[in-house]
Design goal:
By secondary structure, this protein is an alpha/beta fold. Helix content is 38%, strand content 18%. The longest helix has 22 residues, at 86-107. The radius of gyration is 19 Å and the shape is globular.
């Protein structure tokens, strides 16, 4: 198949891109490199530097024909930033996706896989989280992702779009050969922040909230390895059907607390990694972990990485080999 990959220079997008190329698909990447890195783009893919909201650039590309589907990763993704700058998130996530769907409809491309998030559930009434639980996002990041899911459903009804929304839990880890990994500027995610302390690039880890209603008082999240996410995308690609939207929670089915992540990083790196409690951050639910039963049943997907030490170890291998990331 010929696949357009938006945001293919980013963390999850670059890992999915590599797997697409390894499986023999032809991939074209669109990325504006504001948060992505050209070095992360697989050399077997064609690269186009453009913004997903640039309707003229997208039209020129898709009008050339031959595209079977789109994998849509391009988005702003920092929960805390979304609380302080919501308009950036509605512009980059919702408005730009509307442009992408407009061009897809015009050019006859009717299949899309969307990078969604567990943040659409807000503070769930129970865990593990199934797909049917109420969607009550508590931050603009989650609100924008849910708005896009609604757009996909309406486009499926209106003009036959076949879509799949993969609701990631906490993407983590790095490629098994340590050549692709996680690099954000600034870095918002826990595992790379902890490992930057292990490398001496930060003085300490701040633990935002130690009084949550969890076993050790710190937030609990489901850490899903990025290569397992990539596999989920390829399986979802095979299952796309015109006029139908599917939704899958993609996680391991178990949660690890912030304190457990710090301890895993200490074991893996052999470093002390100082940690200090801090006030809660706005928009952080206490506990989020998936019930991945639906994607296992319907797509035959299974995570290969279920041990948190193994996930952290893969990230540690990347960060040691690339202490300045793609820089």
């Amino acid at each position: 198949m010929r696949i357009l990959v938006t945001g293919g220079a980013g963390y999850v997008g670059s890992h999915c891109l590599r797997l697409l190329c390894e499986r023999g698909h032809e991939a074209v990447v669109v990325d504006n490199l504001v948060t992505g890195f050209r070095a992360a783009v697989d050399k077997r893919a064609r690269f186009v530097e453009a913004n997903v909201g640039d309707e003229a650039a997208l039209s020129k590309l898709l009008a050339a024909g031959g595209f079977d589907a789109v994998m849509h990763f391009a988005a702003s993704l920092d929960v805390a930033e979304s609380v302080g700058d919501p308009l950036k998130y509605f512009r980059n996530n919702v408005a730009n996706t509307a442009v992408l769907l407009t061009v897809m409809q015009r050019c006859g491309v009717q299949k899309l896989i969307f990078s969604s998030t567990c943040a659409i559930f807000g503070v769930p009434p129970r865990v593990p989280i199934t797909e049917e639980l109420p969607k009550n996002p508590i931050n603009p990041y989650g609100q924008t992702k849910l708005a896009i899911e609604w757009m996909l459903e309406d486009c499926a009804s209106a003009w036959g779009l076949g879509a799949c929304a993969l609701r990631y839990f906490n993407a983590s880890g790095a490629s098994s050969d340590a050549t692709l990994g996680e690099h954000h500027e600034p870095e918002p995610h826990l595992i790379p922040i902890v490992l930057q302390v292990a490398l001496g690039q930060r003085e300490k880890v701040l633990i935002y909230g130690t009084d949550y209603p969890t076993p050790d008082g710190t937030c609990v999240r489901d850490y899903i390895h990025v290569e397992d996410l990539a596999d989920a995308h390829l399986r979802a690609l095979d299952g796309l059907r015109p006029g139908r939207t599917r939704h899958y929670n993609v996680g391991t089915g178990r949660g690890s607390s912030v304190q457990e992540i710090v301890e895993a990083a200490r074991r893996v790196s052999g470093q002390a990694i100082p940690a200090e409690p801090a006030a809660r951050r706005p928009g952080d639910p206490p506990e989020l972990y998936a019930d991945p039963g639906r994607i296992k049943r319907e797509l035959g997907w299974e995570p290969r990485y279920t041990d948190i030490d193994a996930i952290v170890a893969s990230a540690w291998a990347w960060h040691r080999a690339h202490p300045k990331g793609y820089g």
